[in-house]
Every structure is written in structure tokens, then in C-alpha cells.
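Practice problem 4.
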């Protein structure tokens, strides 16, 4: 039995090093908002021994999906919060990146239908190597 476990562990380790696009996605959700723009959040976990770079995203529910970072600039007159687009998002080897309100997120623009609480939206992540990975995110309140 111990030999079987060791072999299973080795097979899993070899598999995880060869698939740069096999991210584990946890707690994927989309903010319930009226209108035709919203954001998606999740935790992306990279089990591989090499970094994974996301270069884009899409969804059948939206005309455009893009990576954004919410940033706050402090001026002499207070703070100014805005968003800037990101060209890529890198998840380090054996690392994780949390997409969350006030930070990195996926911006969904041009929603094709109004959102409903509890609805599941399909999102597709596009990687630098050309591969893609689909996931489902549930529409909910923050």
C-alpha cells in the first residue's frame, strides 16, 4: 500500500508540472449589480512548478471581459480611487492570487441580460500559451 501511495503522488506531481493551465479556482463569484457592467472575483491557485500567465478572459454573458486593478492614489486633498486595465496576471509557481473587491478583478462589460441572484455565469480564462480554462461563478451580493 505505501508503494501505491508513493506512485500516485509521483504521478500527480509529474502531471501538475506539465499543465501550466490547470489552475484550481475557489470561491468564484460575480457581484450582483443593476446595469450592464459588473465584476468577478475568485482565488486562483497554481499547483504547477512554473508560473501561469493569464492574458485575457471572456464570457458568453458579456461583450467584453478584462483584467483590472482598483488602485487608490493619495493626494494632498484626499484619496482618489480608480481602475486600470492589466495586460497580464501572473500566478507564481505553487502560488495563489486572490481577485477581490478593491483589488484585482475581472470586469464584465456589456452584459447581454440582467443578472439574477444565484445565477451561474461561465467565464473563460485565456493563458499566454494559448490554452483556455472554463469556470463557473455564482452571482451574489458582496
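Answer key:
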Amino acid at each position: 500500500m505505501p508503494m501505491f501511495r508513493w506512485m500516485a503522488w509521483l504521478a500527480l506531481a509529474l502531471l501538475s508540472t506539465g499543465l501550466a493551465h490547470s489552475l484550481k479556482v475557489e470561491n468564484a463569484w460575480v457581484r450582483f449589480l443593476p446595469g450592464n457592467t459588473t465584476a468577478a472575483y475568485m482565488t486562483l491557485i497554481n499547483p504547477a512548478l512554473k508560473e501561469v500567465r493569464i492574458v485575457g478572459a471572456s464570457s458568453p454573458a458579456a461583450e467584453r471581459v478584462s483584467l483590472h486593478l482598483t488602485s487608490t492614489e493619495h493626494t494632498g486633498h484626499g484619496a482618489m480611487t480608480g481602475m486600470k486595465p492589466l495586460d497580464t496576471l501572473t500566478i507564481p509557481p505553487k502560488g495563489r492570487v486572490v481577485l477581490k473587491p478593491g483589488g484585482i478583478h475581472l470586469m464584465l462589460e456589456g452584459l447581454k441580460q440582467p443578472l439574477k441572484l444565484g445565477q451561474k455565469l461561465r467565464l473563460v480564462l485565456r493563458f499566454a500559451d494559448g490554452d483556455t480554462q472554463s469556470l463557473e461563478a455564482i452571482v451574489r451580493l458582496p
